[in-house]
Amino acid sequence: MKIRIYPDKEQSVQIEKTIG
Fold first, then answer.
1. Half-sphere exposure of 2 (CA within 13 A, CB side)
2. How far apart are CA 14 and CA 12, in angstroms?
3. How far apart, in whole angstroms, are the C-alpha atoms of residue 16 and residue 11?
4. From CA 7, how far away is CA 19, in angstroms rounded?
5. Measured in whole angstroms, how far is the alpha carbon of residue 5 from the centre of its chain?
6. 3-state SS class at 1
7. Residue 20 has pLDDT above 60, yes or no
8. What is the pLDDT of residue 1?
9. Global confidence as pTM
10. What Å distances lie between residue 10 and 13, 14, 17, 18, CA to CA?
11. DSSP alpha helix (H) spans, 1-20
C-alpha cells in the first residue's frame, strides 16, 4: 500500500481514499 503525498492536501486525501 503506497500513499503518495501531493502539494495539494485535497489531492492527497483523494489518493488515500482511492488506495484505501
1. 2
2. 5
3. 9
4. 18
5. 6
6. coil
7. no
8. 58
9. 0.13
10. 5, 6, 11, 12
11. 9-19
Amino acid at 16: E
Residues composing the chain: 20
Give dist(CA 1, CA 8) in Å, integer: 20
Residue 19 reports pLDDT greater than 60: yes
At 8, give phi and psi (nearest 5°).
-90, 125
Grid coordinates representing 6 are 501531493
Three cell numbers, residue 11: 489531492
In angstroms, the CA 11 to CA 20 distance is 14
